[in-house]
Amino acid sequence: MKWKRITAAIISIICTVALTGCIAQRPTKQPQTVNPNDALIGISMPTKYLERWSRDGTNLEEKFRELGYHTTIQYADNSTDRQISQIQNMITQKVSALVIAPIDGTVLAPIVDQAYKQGIPVLAYDRLIEGTEGLGYYVSFDNQHVGELQGQFLVDALNLPNTSSTKHIELFGGSPDDPNAAKFFSGAWNKLKPYFESGALVSPSGKIPVSESDWKTIGILGWDSAKAQSEMQTRLNSFYNNNEALDAVLAPNDALALGISQALGGRGFKPGTGWPAITGQDADKANVKNLISGRQAMTVWKDTRALGDRAVKMVDQILRGQKVEISAGKEYDNGKKKVPTYLLEPKVVTKDNVQQTLIDSDFYTAEELGIK
Ligand code: BGC
User: Fold this and answer.
1) 112 phi, psi to nearest 5 deg
2) Is 364 exposed, middle or buried (0-12, 13-18, 19+ CB in 10 A)?
3) Ligand 1 atom closest to residue 178's alpha carbon, by position in its atom list
4) Mutational test site, ligand 1, from 83, 146, 185, 281, max ligand atoms within 8 Å of CB
5) Among 42, 66, 103, 220, which is least packed, fewest CB within 10 Å?
6) From CA 248, how far away is CA 257, in angstroms rounded?
7) Model confidence over 268-298: pLDDT tens digits?
8) Has residue 50 got a pLDDT over 60?
9) Is the CB of 225 under 6 A from ligand 1?
10) Cα of 181 to ligand 1 centre, how many Å?
């Protein structure tokens, strides 16, 4: 008995030593307090060609510079290889921190691990980076809630709980390589699925996922507006030839909503009666104009200025060695670790609250939206 206890104690000491050794070998270099004037921040954005990312990039640079930081920014034209080599260059330039909005959430793990080993803290911006222990923090909007807002909007717009007629809807998913897109779909599907089950909702194209995890089958790669337009044209040409009504389209973001509304316009649909309720996200300028002209019913606005403020604050707190504020109880599992996360709340914008949301907050001027 005594020997058993001694053996257990020895094993426990060996394990502790091994474990401590293991932890000690892992790169734990947290930056010391850094003077902003001596620090270069690397910002890696997916593409300049979607309005929101160029706005995010400019905004981040401005906010970092206000605090005295230097910045280097790269847009990767939606090419994963380019994004990896751009981040590689930033590591070579010895940036003090990296802020990365990944194109593909699953392929950046090795480069993020490399940054981590060199003591460069990494913040995932808007989209999570998966499969790496090297990711320090994540800042985003509540993406599941974005989808719920879109789904609930359509439930209300079609008055589904109180109507006995069947409504026609077409569903679109975001880019299959974007981890946010799964969350957008999941949120929307939770709201819409009961009505598919009851028969209140039907998709004449039959393009509905057989399960929530099957959403990629209706995804539009690269969030490409032109691809969404041609997919909508195909569905209209194949399934809407006998004056079938189209009551709603679930579009997960504004780029797709734009392509879809162009396809509808091309097929002779006119805003007003007969034009479906189309959702969106980002409050891109062209789409806000479409809200006003009745071509889009809603968009989910994620104030990128607030996201930028928070990202800059988190990086500043990291580099100053301060406690980094995160949302209570919010950790996102990236497959390798639970990543401390700060989540902001998205808002629904319709033509009725464009003034109070987007104009009163100076996100856009009335002139920019063509309403003055
Ligand atoms: C972002 C959306 C954006 C989409 C396409 C998503 O990850 O959260 O705001 O519309 O990417 O760029």
Assistant:
1) -70, -40
2) middle
3) 7
4) 281
5) 66
6) 11
7) 999 999 999 999 999 999 999 999 999 999 9
8) yes
9) no
10) 8
